[in-house]
Amino acid sequence: xxxxxxxxxxxxxxxxxxxxxxxxxxxxxxxxxxxxxxxxxxxxxxxxxxxxxxxxxxxxxxxxxxxxxxxxxxxxxxxxxxxxxxxxxxxxxxxxxxxxxxxxxxxxxxxxxxxxxxxxx
Length: 121
Description:
Number of strands: 0
Radius of gyration: 14 Å
Shape: globular
Order of helices and strands: HHHHH
Structural class: mainly alpha
């Protein structure tokens, strides 16, 4: 379902191939709103643009609104142990990893909803 997807591009490609890309974007917008964080990509955002927007948003949250970043990860249900730790890392690298984990978890939600509503993947 999602464990074999190793980066953001693969997650978005998989969602698009199953015609669930817009569901994934909607799920992102919904969960950001639940975290009280504005994230409103335009309706026809491309996968590359979505990745860049998400990475930029996470980067700003990491640097300027860390409690909101943690709340977002909690609401989306990104497991804490999935985030790399230990070595000192650049904020941009951390934002890229977090954006991938966010997309991966949101994809799992979308895939499960689709599968159990009779969409059959």
